[in-house]
Amino acid sequence: MHKKTALLRAAAPVAVLALALTACGGNKKSTTTDDAPKTEKGSSAPAGGGELKPGQGGTGKFKEESRTITYEVAAQKVHVSTEAETKKLVSDPKRAKGLVAATAWVKYTNKGGGVVKESPDVADESEIYADGQRGGLLIGAAEDGPGCEDTLDIENWKAGQSHTICQTYMIPKGAKSVEVHWAGEDQSGSPLIWKFDNAG
């Protein structure tokens, strides 16, 4: 499924809403959290699930093709688009009524386990939640924006190297809080969570 998602992203001229929307929210003005702090060296949290500060790294394992890679994962920032910006991203603006696009910049560092030859799937485990409910994945959104890397362009990812991969989800307009979740294979049902306050 992960490779299919990557191929759909590459082929889609206009973003399409891939997952059923389960969230609902109010009508307060959305703001961005572009000024979230960057990852600092030595700010990694121990392995396992839990809440982290924006930019703080947590570790987890994820299977890429035939090998299991240990990753350090750090959600850097989240940008919540306006309704007007969101309408330009989606294929059917009517389906986006009351919703806005939220894009998360997540930095992944290969900490060991082998070389990821091409098109890593680790970012597919990143999800965006708004006010406690998961948003709907927006496939084909402009995730090659400033600071974002396309997974189809990532090859021979060696230990010690980092890449920033973005994911875009549809969330209710006016959500008060936005969270980025990532769950690897050893999180035991408890994902790594980064919370971004989104109150205006």
Produce the secondary structure layout.
Elements: H1 2-11, E1 16-17, E2 50-52, E3 58-64, E4 67-80, H2 83-89, E5 99-112, E6 116-118, E7 126-130, E8 133-134, E9 136-139, E10 155-157, E11 162-172, E12 177-182, E13 192-197
Parallel strand pairs: 2-13
Antiparallel strand pairs: 1-9, 3-4, 4-5, 5-11, 6-10, 7-8, 7-12, 9-11, 12-13
Tell me briefly what this model is.
This protein is mostly beta strands.
Along the chain, the helix and strand elements come as HEEEEHEEEEEEEEE
Helix content: under 10%
Low-confidence stretches: 1-14, 19-46
Q: How many H/I helical runs?
A: 2
Q: How would you describe this protein?
A:
With 200 residues, this protein is mainly β. The chain is built from two helices and 13 strands. The protein has a six-stranded antiparallel β-sheet with strand order 1-9-11-5-4-3. Strands 2-13-12-7-8 form a five-stranded mixed β-sheet, with no helix packed on it. A two-stranded antiparallel sheet has the order 6-10. Strand 7 and strand 8 (133-134) form a beta hairpin. Mean pLDDT is 79; it is low at 1-14 and 19-46.
